[in-house]
Amino acid sequence: MKTSMIALAFAAFATAGFAHASDAPTAATEGQSGAAQMQQWNASQSGTMQKTRAEVRHELVQAQQDGKLPRLNSLYRGS
């Protein structure tokens, strides 16, 4: 029984590893002559500015007053 469970777990991990490896772009598929370049997300490059606590609090009060927050809460409750 344990042997079959171990074999099943190994097969599942191996399949997931192959699926993950096949998602990686290669230089040939992207038309690049060199090595594929990896690009990471960076908060400073996203173009958004960080907000202060006062700005976030002001947005929260505005959302409560104009009814946006209660509407979102009702959507997530499913009512």
TrEMBL record:
Residues 29-51 have a biased composition (Polar residues). It comes from the Bacteria. Residues 1-21 form the signal peptide. Pfam families: DUF4148. Keywords: Signal. The keyword Kinase does not apply. Residues 22-53 are annotated as: Disordered. This is DUF4148 domain-containing protein. It comes from Paraburkholderia elongata.
